[in-house]
Amino acid sequence: MGKWLPGFSRRSQARIQDRVSRLGARMTATPRPEFDAKLRERLTRPPAGEDVPDQRPAGPRHSRRRSRAGLLPQLLSVAMVAAMVVSGMWTYRSMPGDTFYPLKRAAERTLFHLSSDDAERADRSFGYAETRAREVKELLGSGGGEGEGEREEVIGETLQAMADTTRSAVTSLRQMRRRDSASAKELKRFVQKQRTQIAGMIPKMGAENQRKAHVYLNYIEGLAPPG
User: Which of 66, 109, 129, 217 could disulfide-link to 165, CB 3.0 to 4.6 Å?
Assistant: First the structure.
C-alpha cells in the first residue's frame, strides 16, 4: 500500500490506508462483554414451545414419595417370603383331614420320585411309614365326641397309607442288587419300632381299625430276620 495507486491522489491514498489499519484493529479485538452475555443467553435459551425441566432440589415431600415407592416392593417381597414359610410350616405339621394335608402327601410323593436309587427310595418310604404311625397316635389322642365315626374313618385311611408305604419300601429293597448289613439293620430297627408303637395303639382303635393294625403287624413280622 506504500506505492501510489493510479487514479487516486496521495491524500486519498493516505486516508484509505488509515481506514484499513483501523478496520484491522477492530477485527482482531476481543468481543465486548455485552456481546458475550447476549450470545450466551441465546445459546442457553430453550426452543419455543419446549418445557424447561425443574432444576430445583427435591423437597422433603418428593423424597418421602421416592422412599415409599422404593420401600413397597421390599415389603411385598418380605410378605411373600413370610407367607411361604408359614404355609410350609402348616403343611409340614398338618394332620389327616386338615386343609394342607394333601400338600404334605404330594410333597412326599415328589421327593420319593426324585430319589436317586432304590436305597434312597426305601429309606424315604420307611420314614413316611413312621410319619403315618405318629399321625395315627395323635388322632387317637385327640379324644372322642360327636365326630368319633369320622375320626375312625380318617385313622383307617392313615393305617392303610402306612401299610402301602411300608410295602413300597420293601419293594425298593428287593430291587436292590445286594442288601448289605446296614440295610438289614435299618429294616430290623424299623420293624421293632413299628411293632411297639402300633401294638400300643390297638386298644384305642375301633374294631375295624384294630383288624387293619393286626394285619399290618403280621406283615412286618416277616420282614426282618429274628435276632
Answer: 129
Convert the pLDDT of each residue in 131-149 to its tens digit: 999 999 999 987 665 578 8
Cell of 133: 404311625
Determine the Cα–Cα distance for residues 31 and 221; give it in Å rounded to an integer.
Answer: 111
End-to-end CA, the chain = 134
Q: Which cell numbers in the block locate residue 103?
A: 400338600
Residues 90, 82: contact at Cβ < 8 Å?
Answer: no
Q: Which grid cell sits at 209?
A: 381299625
| pLDDT interval class at 44 (50, 70, 90) | low
**DSSP assignment, residue 41?**
H
User: What confidence tens digit (pLDDT) does each residue in 67-76 have?
Assistant: 666 676 766 6
For 124, the grid coordinates are 424315604
CA distances to 97, 133, 151, 156, 165 from 103, in Å: 12, 18, 20, 20, 17
Given a contact cutoff of 8 angstroms between Cβ atoms, the answer to whether 133 and 143 are in contact is: no
Burial 132-159 (b: 16+ CB within 10 A, else e): bbebbbebbeeeeeeeeeebbbbbbbbb
**DSSP per position, 92-149:** HH--TTSTTHHHHHHHHHHHHHT-SSHHHHHHHHHHHHHHHHHHHHHHHTT--STTHH
Radius of gyration of the chain (CA): 47
Q: Helices 148-174 and 181-201: crossing angle, nearest 10°?
A: 170
